[in-house]
Design brief:
The protein has about 260 residues and is mainly β. The protein has one helix spanning about 1-25, and strands at about 45-65, 75-80, 85-100, 100-120, 135-155, 160-180, 180-205, 210-225, 235-255.
Length: about 260
Amino acid sequence: MKKLATVIAAIALIGTPVLAADLDKPVVYKAPPPAPPAPVYSWTGWYVGINGGWGWASGCCTYGANGTIFDTVNGATVNTSGSINGGLFGGQIGANYQINALVLGVEGDWDWSGQSRTGSVCILEPACANNGAAISETVKISQIATVRGRFGYAADRVLFYGTGGVAFISTSDNISGTTLGFSGTILNASTTSTGWTAGAGVEWAFAQNWTAKVEYLYVAANVSQATAPIPLIGGTLTESGNIHDNLIRAGINFKYP
């Protein structure tokens, strides 16, 4: 029994230095593996969204008469002053394809427009010698649609782009008043004209499937329209000219995938 106790004591004495040596060793901690890099955002896909903003336009018209007492002013040019201002609201649909940092796309949009201008105009009396100020003209832009290409540079979730294409603009013109013994509507016409558009913008992907954008578009179109025969006088009054429209719009898109 005494021998067994001696053996156990010897084993304890031998293990103690080993244990103490283990306690003196520094603890080594391994760093966690690096997190995988955040995925680069892709602009490839199709999208649909809404937009709104403001437009201001200018226009100048040439009027001509045929078969009326106004023939003497045929071809007179009138510089109507003041901007055709108003709000815009509509929607867009499009698609993008990204190659490295280059983004190519196509977009179509339509906007209701509240742009209008009302003022006096003198087209029927040379040099407005008499009561030309009694004639009132109201010009409206009611709709604007575009089909455009887009090309841009993507800095991850921010896209800087230029854009250009074809534009369709719906306008109306009403001229009425009293002149040369006639009182009433002189011209009341509306038309949709085809032109061109160009601009630039920036778009931000604030979520995986949602983007927001701000853009500027310049729209130019030639306008040609004519009134029906003027009551009691007959004949027609034609109008030709141009519209130069500036649009500032903000929009939001849902992108898929």
